[in-house]
Amino acid sequence: MTTLTTTTSPPPTSPSAPSSPRVTGTLRVTGTLGERYREILTPEALDFLTLLHDRFVARRHELLMDRQQRRQDVADGIDPDFRAATRPVRDDPSWRVAGSTGAPGLEDRRVEITGPTDPKMTINALNSGAKVWLADAEDASSPTWRNVVEGQLALHDAIRGTLTHTVDVPDGEPKEYRLRSTTLTDLPTIVFRPRGWHLIEKHMRYVDRAGVSVSASASLVDFGLYLFHNAHELVARGRGPYFYLPKLEGYREARLWNDVFVLAQEYLGLPQGTIRATVLIETLPAAFEMEEILHELRDHCAGLNAGRWDYLFSVIKAFRTRGDSYVLPDRAQVTMTAPFMRAYTELLVATCHKRGAHAIGGMSAFIPDRRRPDVTERAFEQVRSDKRREATDGFDGTWVAHPDLIEVARGEFDAVLGDAPNQVSRLRDDVEVGQHELLDIGSARRAGATVTAAGLRSNVSVGVRYLESWLRGVGAAAIDHLMEDAATAEISRSQVWQWIASGTRTENGVPITRDRVEALLAEIVDDLPRTPGNRIDDAANVFRAVALAEDFPTFLTIGAYSQFLVGSEVDQP
């Protein structure tokens, strides 16, 4: 095992930067170094990461403790609500966010494609014709050490126009992947999503000046490496360092990110405001603090995104012990027209446009199948309907997970936007959403949606199959003509947990119990094909731990990462 350690602060890479702050802690890389890894894990880059940990790791820990307390408050019957203490921020009509002003490539975001940052997916995304690529190091990526570092390498090369990738084809010529242009402004604007505050990077150890050793913050590692290596290059090539911020639960977490941005720009000699962030509103607490989140990030904020799948997961997690009135029906039956989901998205659009921010819609999970025209047409129709609703409601852009869906989504936004790059000027003064509307969880079942035996089976099957893919290092998986990632897997396992805890019965009157799910799990596992290198048994064990245990793990990836992913074969370079 090779270890890299940083203890001192060298000069910043930019000659225009002020004299840099000195680091006080140390950061050790404990992961194995593969080919070219030292190009990313340079002493200068590691020193920058150390500085970020010196300044912010304690606050990160405090905010994660605050999350635990808020979760307990909701479990005890205290419903989330808009904060009285921050009402002056909401009532002040004068402030605006930076938005896309001075952020080339963010004016028109009508179609964004999402995907992980491995070389093949990076090239496909940048060749796709979308306006923006969400380069995802979070929910669509399995955080193996290989994926973390080689994803940074792929981004580094793509930004400089040098990325290529070759795939061996059995009994055929190798397939070459190349960027369609080496000019960055000819390609989708890159918006990088680091991992959330709750996640760690176990291949790096941070030791503070008191000698306390902890795993590095995955957020700071992902953000820091990307910014350090690429910020000046991006600006020189006509773009900027742009980020998606996941899993925020309130304005204090947004303030932490803003302080990270300020220090990072100062250290690297970047003008303040060079960084622009789009925040995913994908947790229930954040839905009540959208304006405060925008306010905290206002000099660095481009917009908000309706992260619908994680939002559903957050709703289930928040109310999982609150009884039958908070039970959601089958995932497939919880559409965006459910009143509580519509309230969330309409409030997001109104909030964004009030403050000059872009509102970006969510991702339809449906994906086409080029071998099945019937499946493809169904996917197209589902996506058309979803994107038509978003564009009509005032969203400025949306997500797709497959290149074949770009034209479908673009057509719906073109019909509303025309030649305009966005519709930020369209104020939704007609929107009136309060606590009741956001928390009307029972509205989905009142509309006739139910919990079915088929839905239960689907949750168990999708949960296990996705986890098996994730444990093999693949974080975005096409399953049953849907694009599944960590967020949709979280819905599957949390619904099972809640249905058991609430004594829910399926449409045939049979109760959902641990024994019933165990039997179903065994049947599904037995039916799965055992290909070489499969992780089916490990996936089943993880599913049991996150769906059938007495206690509810906050995220399925936390334990699975430490116990089953780190040190596995796919974790190595």
TrEMBL record:
Keywords: Acyltransferase, Glyoxylate bypass, Transferase, Tricarboxylic acid cycle. InterPro entries: Malate_synth_C_sf (IPR044856), Malate_synth_sf (IPR011076), Malate_synthA (IPR006252), Malate_synthase_CS (IPR019830), Malate_synthase_TIM (IPR001465), MS_C (IPR048355), MS_N (IPR048356), MS_N_TIM-barrel_dom (IPR046363). It comes from the Bacteria. The active site is at residues 193, 485. Residues 28-85 form the Malate synthase N-terminal domain. The keyword Transferase applies. Residues 451-563 form the Malate synthase C-terminal domain. GO terms for biological process: glyoxylate cycle; tricarboxylic acid cycle. It catalyses: glyoxylate + acetyl-CoA + H2O = (S)-malate + CoA + H(+). Residues 83-94 have a biased composition (Basic and acidic residues). SUPFAM superfamilies: Malate synthase G (SSF51645). Pathway: Carbohydrate metabolism; glyoxylate cycle; (S)-malate from isocitrate: step 2/2. The keyword Transferase applies. Residues 16-25 have a biased composition (Low complexity). GO terms for cellular component: cytoplasm. One of its GO terms (molecular function) is malate synthase activity. Its EC number is 2.3.3.9. Residues 1-25, 83-103 are annotated as: Disordered. Residues 189-441 form the Malate synthase TIM barrel domain. It comes from Cellulosimicrobium protaetiae. This is Malate synthase. Belongs to the malate synthase family.
